[in-house]
Amino acid sequence: MIGHDVEVMITDVRGDKVRLGITAPKDIPVHRREIYEKIKREGQKKKN
After folding, report:
1. Angle of CA points 25, 32, 46, to nearest 5°
2. How far are the Cα atoms of 10, 12, 24, 29, 48 from residue 3, in angstroms, in the given order?
3. With 0-12 CB in 10 A as exposed, 13-18 as middle and 19+ as buried, what is 41?
4. Domain ranges within the chain, ordered by starting residue
5. Which residue numbers in the chain have pLDDT < 50?
6. What is the pTM of this model?
């Protein structure tokens, strides 16, 4: 648990790969790091 609202679960383990499941309120964005960084870069482009 992260706080009272966000739950992180291990849903699968295969070799050295772990799959996570995340349950969070709709107002909390949840992204993989590469997606988050892409969104961040695109937001900076719009400011310039």
Report:
1. 90
2. 18, 23, 10, 15, 35
3. exposed
4. 7-47
5. none
6. 0.68
